Amino acid sequence: MKKIVVSLLLALVLLASACSGAPATEEKKKIDIITDGASDYTVIVPEDASEAELYAAQELKDFVRQATGVSLPQETDAGKTLTGESRYLVIGDSQLKEAAGIVTDASVLGTDGFVIENEGNSLFLGGAADRGTLYSVYEFLEKAVGVRFLAIDETYVPEVKDVSVYSGRDEQVPAFQRRDVHFYPTINNADFAARMRLNGVRTDLTAKHGYGSKQEWSENWAHTLYMLLPPEEYYEDHPDWYGNVPYEEVTADGNKRMCLTNDELVAELVKNLKQWIIDQPNAKYFAVAQEDNSSPCSCSNCQASDAKYTFTGSMLNFVNKVARQIEEWRRQTMPEREILIEMFAYQETELPPVKLNENNEFEILYPELEVEDNVVVRIAPIWSCFSHDLFDPNCPDNSKSRQIFEGWGAICDKIIMWTYCNNFENYIMYFNNFRTIASNYQTFVENNVIEILDQGAFDTPRTNLQELRIYIQSKLQWDPYQDVNALIEEFCNLYYGVAGSYVLDFIELWNLHYAAIDTQSYMHFWCWDNYDNVYAAENYPRRFLEQSMNLFDEALERISVIEDDETRERLQERVTAVSLIPRYYVMINYDTYYDAGTKQAFVDQWFDDAEYVGLTRISEGVPTSALYEEIIAEE
């Protein structure tokens, strides 16, 4: 998709004048990099450039060429000096950067922050580490060239004749050190994930991307207690470690438990964890985290601990024991490494072991529960409502959110987040969280969260507005104070082309619909189970659903007259994918709206279109065909 633009002048502005040490009133100088389709600039990389620096330079040249037709030459910095006549785009950790006095402080920028700064007519793009350098190039391409990385199947590159920036220093540090919009496309396409500045734990980011969380985290990064102490290996000799639950039931929901007060269990777990650490020499984070749908041990020692400390307190005590032993061993055997132990604040351990003091501030229940320095707490609010702000006082499902976030934030300075942006029982339903994404991310920032994983549908493309969600959530994980509505509008107009206004109308229609329902009685959206009224026909009048479907009929009619076959087919597929949403609500309540005799044709068309757009799962691990069988069985 291209747009003809006579001149593009997008300034790289200072985030704060203090970053450059220059007075706020200093006049900015315009630096022309490309003028009327011509340039005398050269891309400079270090003589010993890393893979990421070379890849960043290639990305810069490729997209500049696509936008302007200009092929910028590339040279190394060997023997180069900086003069008033120099016209360089300097990538990464070049000796010219030091000569120019450009500072990229790792203690400020971390691994992902970057600086874009000029010295004379030369522009320096880089970070304190490879990822930051790559991200600085993407920032330049977005702000100075107008490129937009929209989705794995669409990068918007405008046609421009001029590319200019203004003098000064743009220093950016992301709101979260690690950012993961956990959807199928970002997990399975590392180039796209890097362009969205994501460094998720399941994405195969390589040296050219500056690597990512997959290298920093243990390969076993989530539910690990049964991995560290597999029942098939230990149960026969130690049934008490698993709460004496019968072996055939030990992996069943509600029966997954471990005796957290058993010192022999702790010693064996620590032994196995040490081996993980040895076997993964580059990993920094290791999870000691309970299984899904686990429950407390019923032995007398664990019951006494839970009664005193709460189950969360017992789990924290357990993780602290492990962390202390690992830290002592690390200091003796590998002092050069940093090892952090992850604990889950999830399901039964979501609420922190805290109390309010006389100053109405949260503090730890007992001093012996103080979180160890090498422990990180991952909050996963699986029972929260995501259609309302986590701190919304009128949402009963979020009534404990303040205690969860402020409580953990008060006792731990290393909080990481596993949140949710999809319903895992129904991938195609309209997940009503667009108005809360930014505010919730802001809540995380303000409560010591240093990392975020926002989980969507990881096992199929084309779930409800998946591409849009990836776009805005990636942007907001970098800076959660951006204008969400502006991001939505930008994406829809670029990604859906002539149908963009129809998709925007659809989103506005459904957001207003749910807002109207909230004026009468709240409708809550969870990431797993849902209240019955989320699907009830009484909340989706026939006129409302027909209005929604008509928008897509009109959009497809607009698309049908596009002469270019590739563009027409691409937009048809994208719009058809979104149209599955309102048609789904009609399909599951069809007999309420229409004559049952016409249902089969409607159902068949829905599933034909689901196959056409590539929707292979209707819920987590459940193929779309299973929904067809369920609907047909109801007949």
What does this molecule look like?
A hairpin with a 2-residue loop joins β20 and β21 (622-623). The protein contains 21 helices and 21 strands. By secondary structure, the chain is of the alpha/beta class. It is globular. It has a six-stranded mixed β-sheet.
List the helices and strands and how they pair.
Elements lengths: L7 E2 L20 E5 L7 E4 L5 H18 L5 E3 L11 E4 L3 H6 L5 H4 L4 E6 L2 E6 L2 H16 L2 E4 L2 E3 L6 E4 L2 E4 L5 E5 L1 H5 L1 H6 L17 H4 L8 H4 L2 H4 L28 H17 L5 E3 L12 H34 L6 E7 L7 E3 L5 E3 L10 E6 L20 H11 L3 E6 L16 H9 L3 E7 L10 H13 L5 H12 L4 H21 L21 H19 L4 H24 L1 H4 L5 H15 L3 E3 L2 E2 H10 L2
Parallel strand pairs: 1-10, 3-4, 3-5, 5-7, 12-19, 13-14, 14-17, 17-18, 18-19
Antiparallel strand pairs: 2-10, 6-7, 6-11, 8-9, 15-16, 20-21
Helix pairs in contact: 1-4, 10-11, 14-15, 15-16, 16-17, 17-18, 18-20, 20-21
Give a quick summary of the entry.
By secondary structure, the chain is α/β, with parallel strands linked by helices.
Number of helices: 21
Low confidence ranges: 1-24
In which range does the helix fraction lie? Answer: 40-55%
Q: Biggest sheet: strands, sense, closure?
A: 6 strands, mixed
How large a portion of the residues is in β-strands, by DSSP E?
5-15%
The backbone outline, from C-alpha atoms, is globular
Distance N terminus to C terminus?
Answer: 45 Å
Mean pLDDT: 94
Structural class: alpha/beta
Number of strands: 21
Strand order of the largest sheet: 4-3-5-7-6-11
